[in-house]
Design a protein that fits this description.
The complex is a heterodimer of chains A (676) and B (549). With 676 residues, chain A is mainly α. Chain A contains 24 helices and 3 strands. Chain A has 3 domains: 273 residues, no CATH class; 143 residues, 2-Layer Sandwich (PX Domain), CATH 3.30.1520; 218 residues, Arfaptin homology (AH) domain/BAR domain (Substrate Binding Domain Of Dnak, Chain:A, Domain 2). Chains A and B meet through helix 22, helix 23 and helix 24 of A and helix 11, helix 12, helix 13, helix 14 and helix 15 of B. Chain A: It is found in: Cytoplasm; Golgi apparatus; Membrane.
Chain lengths: 676, 549
């Protein structure tokens, strides 16, 4: 699996500059053979403890290590040396390690080993890595720009220094690319829960998420964010000064300069992160062509998603267009995946599930298709969601079934379970992963014994009430709309009957003139029926559709609230624990008699709890902030959406009234009824 | 079948399906003119002969046999009538019609009934107040009668009497006491006035009905009229007997138009009933829909109250709710007017058509009676012939035979005349009825259309009036302003589409409602100008009729 991703990245990178083909091919083959990985890893195994101390680049496991080396080499422009180094590795290794080993096996082994090694450290490592990547990125981007005429000059300035620069940069870029597919990293987070705590010596080093399995998702989210940070600047063309710096650094001494530039770019990154220029607003997504596939037992509808990327600079979304087919389940998957990736964000939800019967009803499929399209386009408009690697994967991957599983297990989101076990009452069901229970889940609250905690923020308390009221209002509105629609269907059938009866009466042919009149009247009724049908459809598609969508979004909001409450609960528990422990610690320390061991134990625990509390309170703060801003956007969007749908509804009703008037007037005029 | 009745040429005359009472059919007429003078003396002569003796001319017997054959079997009759010029004699000639239906050709009778008002009584039994003007009709003591008051149930009885005693007429059915308009409202009164005037006009225009003796009592009697000739029983079978007789095959009908009329009327009647049922269903649907829409309006109001963030949205929801409320009310109005125009109209038509159908059935029954009488006469004749051929003649038996033959011949003749009169009259009536139905349908559909146009126009107006409320919610100005710069300078195209000069969406300048209005005003003006001029019934009807829409 690792291989696939690598390959695709390679291909992508290769596309713009063909002249590097031979080199990259060379490297590619190397990567596949993995000759140099083992040695490196082994080295690290030995050096691990030392490495940890100075959180520096050298100790990086696996990818990072590789990159680091590459980076250093980059900086010194000693590509020849580097490649020769690699080349020297290759024979060495192939001599020492017999090639009868299955390549796959070996890689997996390696990966597992690396995982174990890197387990606890990933966060810090990642940060370090991201810095590195950023640094390399800027140069890589510079290089990638080579194709465009404007940039040629600047790059040619740098070029003369060594003829082998281009391949070197290429290498660097390729490596950084590797960061963007994190299977190893994500695997780490996944494994961490079970394996890492036991043998990772670094547990106490940072806020340790691995002790509490619940934290996994949170931690992984953090990772994701970091990964995103890594991704974000990839397409950022470095500013002139920066590139100058780069040039300068490139010729300067290795490590210190890289430090400096890292700092710079972090700053840069922080700035950019707030106004991310991503592929987001340029994605045009259309869902179409619903096709029924499978036999009786597995029949389902497959929708084709066509994504057009109008932002060629985007590096998140590779290529300008992709067409993939997904089924409804997959949409649910991406929804839950995004939910767990972005706690606090209101994710545009997919349409509600449908009972078995009527799944292939034309209207239903069309309605669902529209809802799905709306969902995707809404997601793509929120930049941080649109840049979510899972979302990109969802839009582009050809092997969705496997990749989704992989990513799901990587992030621990259990999205597919959530989508399986799912939400007939999307809104109130607490997610499967954590059973600590929101205020709604009675059973779960019993189990977790979580005391009901007062909402700390009045804003949220108010909002919760507001959302509930809104939901109630919308629900009743939607219900009465629905009833109108069904009633109108009945009216339509009556009009149809009337029309056919008049047609029959016309056929009796009392007089030729009367016959014409009656059949014309029947005809008018026929038209009226069509008109009514259209009105009905219009009502469903505008008001009904929007209300349904908002009911679903409210479900999402509720979910977000729950996530927040859950975090708050945990924070609360830890806080109370902490105070208890602190009390007992105080008692113990005030008594001189108590053993040092115990005190130390307690101190250790208090420390840990403090870390946890700090972590959670930060988490809680950030999620609260996100929710606040999300709710604001929700309000704005709500106004916009409802206004638009009401406007469309009114305009279309105006048109249908005009049509009706026209029909009747024509009938009146044509049959000269004014003379009667 | 072989019976030869000497005075039977009349029967022959009955036989041509192409016969038209008017002389608008040129081809059968020339032989007719040539034959009738020749035929009639013969008829009288033969009639006298039968009174004195049972002997008859052999050749004529042969000739007659052919005729009856044709009349009874109805086979090859049309072909024969083409082949044999003598067959054409059986046309209902104008002369004969003159004799049979003198009322149709006398223009001297005139009855004008002007409805004055409908007084409130019990809801199912209103009092109808009208005045009448009589010219040339016998037995009336005055020429004008004022303030005649009849309760609904009295009129019902009178109507029943008319149906029973005038078998040859399609007696118009009286309107229903109530309409679908809200009870006691102005609209209902107007509509009822129109309907009653229509009924009186139809009665007064019918030459046979105005000569009915009961009409004299109906008009002349004081308050508290009851049918004087109440002893008159229906001349035709009724009840179970009627049902049984209806099962038998229809007797041969020499008049194609009348023969075709009954099935047509019957299917129209059934269809009208069906339409009425559908209209009722539609009324129910609309009522539910209206209730639901008004519920939606309250929901919208709730949403508006809930919307605190954006005043524009609040305003939009409120306005939207108001429009929904108006829509609900308009739907209610629409369902009432729909029901009045098509629902009630079709119901009245169905009742009318039912009466027509029954009258046609009565004709069939009388025709069957006539056939029976004919068969009886034939049997009597055979009996008499047998007696005659015997060697020894018993004078008592001969007398008896002759007498009974005479009797049955008389009865047969009587029935024949009745059949002829009914057939002749019904051919007039049929045309009138068809015209009436046609007119009625035009009228119904017209009022229906006008109501619908009105409904849609009102709704359109209301919908257009809230456009701005939707658009001003934000500076973007709604979807209509999408992707346009200088929004502040752009004007909203919010003008009402139903301006004075015609509808903006179409090039058609004609507008039904405007035309109606103009006509109405015209008429009112005319009436104001011509107050001294007598308003005749028809004009009054049209005036009243228009007033409801």
């Amino acid at each position: 699996m690792d291989e696939d991703l690598t390959a695709s990245h390679w291909d992508d990178v290769l596309l713009p500059s063909k002249n590097d083909l031979s080199v990259s091919n060379h490297f590619h083959s190397l990567a596949i053979d993995d000759p140099h990985r083992d040695p490196e890893v082994k080295v690290e195994e030995y050096d691990l403890d030392n490495d940890r101390d100075d959180h520096n680049d050298e100790e990086t496991p696996y990818d990072e290590g590789e990159t680091d080396t590459a980076l250093e080499l980059d900086r010194s422009s000693q590509q020849g040396l580097y490649s020769s180094l690699h080349r020297s590795f290759l024979p060495e290794f192939s001599a020492s390690a017999p090639s009868e080993f299955e390549q796959e096996e070996r890689r997996q082994k390696n990966a597992a080993m690396v995982d174990q090694l890197t387990a606890g450290a990933d966060k810090l490592e990642l940060e370090a890595a991201s810095r590195l990547v950023l640094e390399i990125d800027s140069s890589a981007a510079l290089f990638a720009d080579k194709g465009s005429p404007i940039k040629i000059d600047s790059s040619s300035n740098a070029a003369p220094q060594s003829p082998t620069r281009a391949p070197a940069l290429k290498n660097g870029k390729l490596r950084t690319k590797r960061f963007r597919k994190y299977p190893p990293l994500t695997v780490v987070t996944h494994l961490k829960g079970d394996v890492a705590p036991a043998n990772d010596p670094l547990l106490s080093a940072g806020p340790d998420p691995s002790k509490d399995s619940r934290l996994v998702s949170g931690a992984s989210d953090k990772q994701k964010e970091i990964v995103k940070d890594m991704n974000a600047p990839l397409y950022d063309v470095p500013s002139a000064s920066e590139s100058q710096a780069q040039d300068h650094i490139g010729s300067g001494p290795l490590l210190p300069s890289s430090e400096i530039s890292t700092e710079e770019i972090i700053l840069e990154n922080g700035r950019k992160g707030k106004q991310p220029t991503s592929s987001a607003s340029y994605l045009k997504i259309s869902v179409g062509d619903p096709v029924k596939v499978g036999d009786i037992t597995t029949a389902h509808i497959v929708y084709q998603i066509r994504t057009v990327n109008d932002n060629p600079d985007s590096t998140v979304f590779q290529g300008s267009e992709s067409i993939v087919s997904r089924r409804y389940k997959d949409f649910r998957w991406i929804y839950h995946q995004l939910q767990s990736n972005h706690p606090g964000r209101i994710i545009p939800p997919p349409p509600a599930k449908q009972t078995y019967i009527g799944r292939f009803n034309e209207n239903f499929v069309e309605n669902r298709r529209m809802s799905l399209e709306k969902m995707l386009s809404k997601i793509s408009k929120v930049s941080c969601l649109a840049d979510d690697p899972d979302f990109i994967m969802f839009l582009t991957s050809n092997d969705f079934a496997n990749e989704s599983k992989e990513r799901e297990s990587a992030s621990g989101s259990a999205a597919s379970h959530a989508s399986l076990a799912d939400d007939d009452n999307d809104s109130s069901s607490p997610s499967v992963i954590s059973s600590s229970g929101g205020p709604q889940g009675f059973i779960s609250s019993l189990f977790s014994m979580a005391p009901k905690i007062e909402e700390p923020d009045e804003f949220f308390a108010n909002k919760k009430v507001y959302i509930q009221d809104l939901e109630f209002n919308l629900k009743t509105f939607s219900k009465s709309l629905e009833m109108i629609v069904t009633q109108r269907v009945e009216t339509i059938s009556v009009v149809e009957q009337l029309s056919s009866s008049f047609e029959e009466l016309a056929d009796v042919e009392i007089l030729k003139k009367t016959k014409d009149l009656l059949s014309a009247f029947a005809n008018v009724n026929e038209k009226l029926k069509d008109n009514l049908e259209r009105v009905n459809l219009q009502e469903q598609l505008t008001l009904g559709f929007t209300i349904e969508e908002y009911l679903r979004i409210i479900g999402s909001i509720k979910y977000v609230f729950e996530t927040r409450t859950r975090i708050y609960h945990q924070l609360h528990t830890f806080q109370s624990d902490l105070s208890k422990k602190e009390e007992s610690l105080e008692k113990l320390t005030s008594k001189y008699k108590s053993s040092v061991d115990k005190i130390n134990m307690l101190k250790f625990e208090v420390d840990k709890l403090q870390q946890k509390v700090a972590y959670f309170s930060e988490n809680f703060k950030s999620i609260s902030e996100t929710i606040r801003s999300e709710l604001d956007t929700f309000e704005i969007e709500k106004i916009d959406d409802f206004r638009n749908s009401v406007e469309i509804y009114i305009e279309s009703s105006i048109e249908s009234q005009k049509e009706a008037i026209e029909t009747w007037e024509t009938f009146y005029e044509r049959h000269n009824l004014s003379s009667v | 079948m072989a019976s030869a009745i000497p005075y039977d040429p009349d029967d022959f005359e009955n036989n041509n399906p192409f016969a038209e009472p008017e002389d608008n059919a040129p081809s059968p007429n020339p032989p007719l003119q040539y034959l009738t003078p020749h035929q009639h003396p013969q008829y009288h002569q033969q009639y006298q002969q039968t009174q004195t003796q049972t002997q008859y001319d052999q050749s004529q017997a042969h000739f007659q046999a052919q005729g009856t054959n044709g009349a009874n079997d109805g086979t090859g009759n049309v072909a024969e009538s083409h082949v044999d010029p003598e067959q054409l004699t059986d046309l209902l000639t104008k002369k004969e019609l003159l004799k049979l239906l003198p009322e149709r050709f006398q223009k001297k009778y005139l009855l004008k009934i002007t409805l004055e008002s409908i007084e409130k009584n019990r809801p199912t039994n209103p009092i109808i107040r009208f005045s009448a003007e009589v010219q040339g009709l016998p037995r009336y003591r005055q020429s004008t009668y004022k303030d005649i008051r009849r309760t609904y149930s009295e009129v019902v009885k009178f109507n029943q009497y008319l149906t029973i005693s005038n078998l040859e007429v399609f007696v118009p059915v009286i309107p229903l006491p109530q309409t679908s308009y809200p009870t006691g409202g102005e609209d209902e009164t107007k509509h009822l006035l129109y309907l009653w005037q229509e009924w009186f006009d139809r009665i007064a225009r019918n030459p046979i009905l105005i000569t009915d003796e009961e009409l004299v009592y109906f008009i002349e009697s004081d308050f508290g009229y009851s049918v004087i000739n109440s002893k008159r029983r229906s001349a035709v079978a009724s009840g179970f007997m009627r049902k049984t007789l209806k099962q038998l095959s229809v007797p041969y009908d020499p008049f194609l138009d009348l023969a075709e009329f009954r099935p047509m009327v019957k299917s129209s009647y059934l269809l009208c009933q069906k339409i009425h049922k559908i209209m009722e269903q539609s009324q129910k649907c609309d009522r539910l829909l209206s209730a639901l829409v008004s519920e939606l309006s309250t929901k919208l109001r709730g949403l508006a109250q809930f919307e605190q963030v954006h005043p524009g949205m609040k305003n939009m929801w409120e306005k939207f709710s108001k429009v929904a409320q108006t829509q609900a009310e308009l739907t209610l109005v629409q369902l009432v007017t729909d029901m009045v125009s098509i629902g009630d109209g079709v119901e009245a038509l169905a009742n009318d058509l039912f009466e027509v159908k029954e009258a046609l059935t009565n004709r069939h029954l009388i025709m069957r009676e006539y056939l029976q009488a004919q068969a009886q006469t034939k049997a009597k004749q055979i009996h008499a012939a047998k007696l005659k051929s015997r060697s020894s003649l018993d004078p008592i038996k001969v007398d008896e035979a002759i007498n009974s033959l005479e009797m049955s011949t008389m009865a047969e003749e009587n029935l024949l005349r009745q059949v002829k009169r009914i057939s002749g009259e019904m051919r007039f009536e049929r045309k009138e009825e068809i015209n009436f139905i046609e007119k009625k349908f035009h009228h119904l559909l017209k009022s229906f259309t006008l109501n619908r146009v009105d409904h849609h126009r009102k709704l359109l107006k209301h919908l257009e009036s809230i456009r701005l409320d939707v658009r001003i919610i934000d500076a973007k100005g709604g979807l209509s302003r999408l992707n346009r710069d200088n929004l502040t300078q752009m004007k909203h195209n919010l003008s009402q589409s139903q301006a004075e000069g015609g509808d903006s969406w179409s090039s058609r300048t004609f507008r039904s409602l405007a035309v109606e209005e103009a006509e109405k005003e015209d008429r009112i003006k005319k009436r104001d100008e011509s107050i001294p001029i007598k308003v005749d019934a028809e004009q009054a009807a049209s005036l009243l009729g228009v007033a409801t829409f």
